[in-house]
Structure formats: structure tokens, C-alpha cells
Amino acid sequence: MVAISVSEPMVSAAADPGSLQRGRDYYLAGRVRELRVDGSAVSAIVDGGRAYRVRLDLTPLGLEGRCNCPYGAEGFFCKHCVASALAWLDSADAPLEASTVSKGKRGRNKSAGKAAGKGASDATSRSGRDRRLRNFLLRQEIPWLVAELLRVAGDDPLLRARLEVAAGVDAGEAFDDRHLRSRLEQAFDVGYFVDYREAGAYFRGVDEALTEVAKLTGEGFPDAARELAAYALDLLESVADRIDDSDGGLRGAIERAEEIHLDACSASAPDPVRLAEFLAERALRSEYEVFLTAVPDYVSVLGPAGMARYRELVEHAWNALPARRSGHYDTCRFTATFLMERLAECEGGTDALVEVLSRDVASAYDVLRIAQRLRDDSRYAEALEWLERGLSDFQPDPRLRTLAAECHVRTGDRGKAQELLWDNFAESPSLEAYIALRKVAGKKAFARWRDRALGVLRDQPAAGQRTDLPPFSIGYGHSTLVEVLLWERDVDGAWAAAAAGGCRVELWLQLARARADAHPDDAIVVLRAAADLEIEKKDRRSYHQAAGLLAEARTLAQRCGCLKGFDAHLLDLRTTHKPKRALREELDRAGLP
């Protein structure tokens, strides 16, 4: 039997720093609901991008959690688990004793592990110190306590604001956001430029500053959080062109600030018309897709009046767009059109969205989007009308044919579907196009298409000869034919096709390994030639690959009784490439003579 209790250090030990902080934000924002305690276990629902179900168990090994969010499904103690644990800790039923909990199987990640005992000890120690301090404070004179509290509040704007609200000041006026504005400005300052190596640390600093803003909503100051989140978005856009965003940190920071803004709006009652004007104007002038998904995200916050104003502004911007020029990308057009599409889809479904999409059809892709939406709504006949128009009015597009074939199958016309998929294959032969045709035609009907398809593939130009080890010729050549025959499990036919027309190196290797048991000599030739090509690249990684290929070939040589000749080849290879020290080292590591 082990006596432990749930504690905040135990929660910290179970989660990674990012999940811990996000979980605190979720808890403070009041996202945990339906908390149910059952002895040493608790269940809850946490509202994130959707409602997630959480289950926590207190065991002698620590705190274990399960959540059906993507991160939790991989076995991690996610932010939803953290939020639920903090809500449990704050409930009347915590801390809980686990003295009767039997030792369970330790999960991959969900246990606080060895830190559980230390966490319980730390919690007990802190609880004792808190009691002593509380008893001390209760014995002090009120003027001294007031002076101490004012001194601390002078350095903590959030504490001061909470005290002022308790004293009767309106929450919207109590919080002085100047220090947090300055904090954001410092965190977002890029100097001259933030390069790739510095970007990770930069965005961690940004996230820390945004976390401070997020806390305001849970502390009762959502109006301040909303204004500061909007200010953070302004700062982000002002510095975006001076940051190397190869890893997507900018997008993550924008989404974080948007999330804070939405949470703050949901926790307060901003004027819906003014909010609609802010969201529409901000999205339409943004070059970084800020508030691009305001609909449907803000629908419940905006209400009927706000949505009416939002629709008015978006429609005005959309109707004011000039005539579209083919092949020309326009950020303003993209944003206004995207917002209009989201609005139409949210309020009017497929018909409204198709009406928006069909206003400005200038390419096969525009037709494809309309047809896809109709297909998704099982309106196959209407989708086919659009697809036939697209195939007639624009350059042939395999995506249109593929979707049209799918719709024809749905309406019972497999013959027409096969003709469209044959056109795709004939225009651009590939294994994928071959499989698509085979799948629709079925085994019996496919016989006539197969002969035609293989004929097309055999007529493709052969690859050039690149080595002195026939039949190893490389290049694209008959690669597609080889792929098709391998897919059909005709290994010997694929080898003959490769020998006649050449193929990519990786296909030669696949063929060699597939035939190694029955034809080791052929496999050795291919492996040697592939190793020579790697050596030609003259870098350590390629030398490592070459050594692996040669070791594989030597095993085959030993099996078929020609090891002496192969080792002679290796000796010649070392002599020829004697200056290449890195190659010699890789050959040695592979155990080659």
C-alpha cells in the first residue's frame, strides 16, 4: 500500500512544459466541465477546438491520464489532462488519498513516475508553511497588512487590478495594460532580422508573453486580454517580413493570439457590431491570414446583429473586386473571396457556396472546387454538368477527369468512367493512373485496357547506358512499366523490361533484391553498379550507402561461391579510390576487406 495525494508538483511531473502552461490557461479560462470524482479517479470534459474527454487516475506511480485529443491519443499527458488535474486539485474532493490503490502497469508517458513521492512531500511541506504564514498574518495589525499589500500590488498590476475590482472599480477600468503592452513589444522586437537558428528561441519568448495575456481572461479581465491579443497580432504582422519562418513559428503565434482573442470575447460581452467591424476589417487588410476563420469561430459571439454587419462588410469587399485576370494572384481577392465562401457555407450550405464559387470561374481548378462540393453533397449529376463544362472550356485537367470518373461510377456509367481514366493514363502514364483504371474497370473488363496500357509503356524511350555493367542502364526509361509489372507481381517481366529500357536506380535495387535468391549473379551486378554511382557523389553519406550496398553484394557472392572474385573487386576499388579516406573508413566500418 502506498499513501500519496494529488498535488500540483505531481501534475508538473506528468506533463511537458508546453502542455503544462496551456493546461493552466485552459483551467483558468474555465474550460473544464462535468468534473466527476470517483475515489482515486476523475473524469471531465475540456472544451478546446472541440469537446475532449479526459480520464485521470491516481496511482502509486503517480498521476496517469487519458484524453481523446490527437496528442493524448499518442500517449502524452496533454493540456486537457493538465486542465482537468488542476480542476480536480481545486475541487472539494482533492487532495485524494491513494492508499488503497494497487500498483498498475506504468504507461509510456502518463505517469509522473519517481517524482510522485517527491511531489507529495513538497506539497505537504508547502501546506505546512502556508498554515504558519496564514496564522502569522491573522495576528498582524490591519495597517501593516494594508501597507504590505499595496507594496506588492505596486509591482503586480494584475494583483492591483483584482484588489481594485474587489473595492468596486469596474473590471474594464481596473487593469492597467501598459506593462503588458511593453512586455509584448519587447518579446516581438526582432532587431534587424531573426534567422533560422534564432527563430525557435524568438517564438518561445513570444509564446511566453502571450501566455501572460491569456491569464487575464481567467483572472476576470477579458476585455484587457482581447485588446492585448489584437495588439499582439498587429505587432506580429509588423515584424513578419524580418523573421525566417521556415518552421512555421509565425503561423503558430498568430493562431495563439487569435485563440486568446476568441476566448476573451467568449468570456465577455463585446459590442457585436463593433466586433464584426473589427474582425472583417482586420482580416481584409491582413497579409498573413489573420482572422481568416472568424466565421464560423465567432458566430456564437457575434450573434444575429454582429453576423449581419459582418456579412455586409464582406459582401461589400467581395462585390468591389475588379474583374479577375487569369493566372494573376491577388491577396485582396483571395481574402475577400475566402471570407465570402466561409460566410456562404456557414449560412447557406452547398447552394450558397456554389453560388459564390460560380461567380468568377476562370480556370479548371475553379470548376473542380464547385464539383467537389457538389460531389461531397452526393449531387453527382450536377457535379458532372460542371465537370463537362470544365473539360470543354479549359485545358484538359486530369483532376477533372478523375472526379468525373468517380461521379460516373456513382451514377452507374462505368464505361464512361473508364474512358476518362484511360485519357488520364494515355496523357501521363503512371502507376497511379494504371491502378485507378484497373480499380474502376474490374478484372474482366480491364484485360482490353491492360494490353493498350503496356503497349504505351513499352513505347516510351529507353534510358541511356550509364555503366559498364550491363544490363544496368539508368534514367527514367521504362520505370513506369517496371513499376506496373512489379505491382502485378511479375518480377521476371519487370526485370526484362528494365533490361530492355532501363529504369531508376531504386527500381533496379528493388528488382535485384526480389530476384536475389534465384539470380544472385544479377543482383550482385546491380548492387555493384549502384555502389559505383554512390561513390561518384563524393560525400560521406554516399560512401556510407555504397559500403552498405557492397556488403550486401558480398553476402550474395559468398552464398553463390564467387567470394574470391568479389574480394578482388573490393581490393581494386580501394586502390582506385585510395585518396578517399572517408570511403576507406566506411568500407572498414562495414567489415569489408
Helix content: 55-70%
Task: Summarize model confidence as the mean pLDDT.
Answer: 87
The oligomerization state is single chain
**What is the total tally of β strands?**
4
**Amino- and carboxy-terminal Cα gap:** 61 Å
What shape does the CA trace take?
A: extended
Tally of helical runs: 28
- The proportion of strand residues reads under 5%
Low-confidence stretches: 95-120
For the biggest β-sheet, the strand order reads 1-2-3-4
Class by alpha and beta content: mainly alpha
Rounded to the nearest angstrom, the radius of gyration is: 33 Å
Largest sheet: 4 strands, antiparallel
Write the layout of secondary structure elements.
Elements: H1 8-14, H2 17-28, E1 32-38, E2 41-47, E3 51-59, E4 62-67, H3 70-73, H4 79-90, H5 115-138, H6 142-155, H7 157-166, H8 171-174, H9 178-188, H10 196-218, H11 222-239, H12 249-267, H13 272-285, H14 294-297, H15 299-319, H16 331-357, H17 364-376, H18 380-393, H19 398-410, H20 414-427, H21 431-458, H22 479-487, H23 491-501, H24 505-515, H25 520-536, H26 540-559, H27 563-576, H28 581-589
Antiparallel strand pairs: 1-2, 2-3, 3-4
